[in-house]
Specification:
- Helix 1 (8-20) runs antiparallel to helix 13 (343-356).
- This protein is an alpha/beta fold and 357 residues long.
- The chain has a single domain, classed as Glycosidases (TIM Barrel, Alpha-Beta Barrel).
- The longest helix has 20 residues, at 282-301.
- It has 13 helices and nine strands.
- Helix 10 (211-226) links the parallel strand 5 and strand 6.
- The chain has an eight-stranded parallel barrel with strand order 1-2-3-4-5-6-8-9, surrounded by five helices.
C-alpha cells in the first residue's frame, strides 16, 4: 500500500455495510471516514456535468476542482441552447464553460452535436430539399466542433440513435431529411473535418438494462465502421436504477470494449426512485447504489488502459441531478446536497483505487 492511501477493501466493504443499515433518511452523513478525491484515486479522468449557473456557486466550484478532472456541459453545448429561432448561433455559455475548464487545467468533453430529440425551429422551417438542408446541417456541426477545435477531448457526435426497445433506430428530423443511416455517417465525417484530434463518440443509454438495445447499438457501430465513418469511441450513459442486477453494467461495457475503441461511462448516476422493487427498503437501495458506482469503475477498469476514456458523473451532488425534476426525493449522486461524500462516494473511490493498483 502506498503511503497515505486508505485501506481500499475495508472502506468499500464499510461503505456497503453502512448503506445496508436499516435506518431512516438522515440530514447528516454517516461517518464513512476519509474518502480521497476521485480524480486522484482514478487511473483515468473522472468528470462531471455542469451548467453555467454552477460556476457562480463557490461550493460547487470547490467540489468540482477537488474531485474532477473533466467537465461536460449538461445542455448548454446542445442545439437547444446554441441554435436561435432565426438560425443564429449563441455561444456565450459554452464559451464560459470552456474558459473555466481551460483556466483550471480540466479536460472538456462536448455533448452533443446530433440528437434525435432536438429539432430547432430554424431547421424545421427550412426547405426539405436535401441539398440545402444538408448544407445547413454540415454548417452547424462545423461551426460548433470547429469553434472548440483543440479544446475538446471528445464529442458525442450522435446521441441516443437506437430506439428505446432496441427495434431499430429512432426517427428524427435528421433521419427524415438526410436518411436514417446517412445522417449519422455524415455527422461523423463532418465532425472529423472540423476537429481532427477530438475522439468522436456514438453515445446511448439503457445499454446495460435492455439486451436488445445493446445488440442493436453494436450492430450500428459495426455498420458505421464498415461504411468508413470515423467513429473513435463508444459512450455508455449508465443511468441506472439502484436495484439493477449485479454484473449487468460490466457485461455492457465489456461488449462495447470488444471493438477496441475508447469507452466512456458518460452520464453516470444511480437512481433510488427508479428502482423496480417497489417495496425495497431504502437501506437496500442505498447499498445497491454504492455497489453500482463501484461496478462502473471496475467495468471501465477491466478494459485495456488505452480504452478507458473517462468516467463522468451526471450530477456531482444530489441537488444537481436532473433526476430531482422527476422525483424530488431521489438521491442519485455520490455527494449529498451539501457536497458531503455518501457511502456511494466511498465505494466508488475504493473501486477506482483498486483499478489503479
Amino acid at each position: 500500500m502506498r503511503s497515505g492511501a486508505f485501506n481500499r477493501r475495508s472502506v468499500v466493504a464499510g461503505a456497503l455495510a453502512l448503506a445496508a443499515c436499516d435506518r431512516p433518511a438522515r440530514s447528516a452523513p454517516a461517518d464513512i471516514g476519509f474518502v480521497p478525491p476521485l480524480k486522484t484515486a482514478a487511473p483515468f479522468p473522472v468528470g462531471t456535468c455542469l451548467q453555467v449557473a454552477h460556476l457562480d456557486q463557490p461550493d460547487w466550484v470547490n467540489l468540482a476542482l477537488t474531485q474532477c478532472s473533466q467537465l461536460t456541459p449538461e445542455w448548454e453545448m446542445k442545439m437547444e441552447y446554441i441554435v436561435q429561432p432565426d438560425g443564429g448561433l449563441l455561444f456565450d455559455r459554452p464559451d464560459r464553460i470552456a474558459g473555466f475548464a481551460r483556466a483550471n487545467g480540466m479536460r472538456l468533453y462536448g455533448t452533443t452535436l446530433v440528437w434525435y430529440a432536438q429539432k430547432p425551429k430554424a431547421f424545421e422551417q427550412m426547405a426539405a430539399d436535401p441539398a440545402s438542408f444538408g448544407k445547413a446541417y454540415d454548417s452547424y456541426i462545423t461551426s460548433v466542433a470547429g469553434r472548440y477545435r483543440g479544446q475538446v477531448a471528445g464529442w458525442d457526435v450522435v446521441n441516443e440513435a437506437v430506439a428505446e426497445d432496441g427495434n431499430g433506430w429512432r426517427d428524427s428530423l435528421w433521419s427524415q431529411r438526410l436518411g436514417a443511416f446517412d445522417h449519422m455517417k455524415r455527422a461523423f465525417h463532418v465532425a472529423r473535418a472540423a476537429d481532427p484530434d477530438a475522439v468522436l463518440f456514438l453515445n446511448d443509454y439503457n445499454l446495460e438494462i435492455i439486451p436488445k438495445k445493446l445488440d442493436t447499438f453494436q450492430r450500428l457501430v459495426e455498420r458505421l465502421l464498415a461504411a468508413g465513418a470515423p467513429v473513435g469511441g463508444l459512450g455508455c450513459q449508465t443511468h441506472m436504477p439502484a436495484d439493477l442486477a449485479a454484473g449487468s453494467l460490466a457485461k455492457a461495457v465489456a461488449a462495447l470494449g470488444r471493438f477496441g475503441l475508447p469507452v466512456h461511462v458518460s452520464e453516470l448516476d444511480v437512481s433510488l426512485s427508479r428502482a423496480r422493487q417497489r417495496f425495497a427498503r431504502r437501506a437496500d437501495l442505498e447499498a445497491g447504489q454504492a455497489r453500482l458506482y463501484a461496478e462502473a469503475a471496475q467495468a471501465l477498469g477491466a478494459l485495456p488502459a488505452r480504452q478507458r476514456f473517462a468516467l463522468t458523473l451526471w450530477g456531482l451532488r444530489d441537488r444537481d441531478s436532473w433526476l430531482k425534476g422527476e422525483n424530488a426525493a431521489d438521491m442519485p449522486a455520490v455527494f449529498d446536497d451539501q457536497g458531503r461524500p455518501k457511502p456511494a462516494a466511498a465505494a466508488l473511490a475504493a473501486a477506482l483505487q483498486e483499478v489503479r493498483g
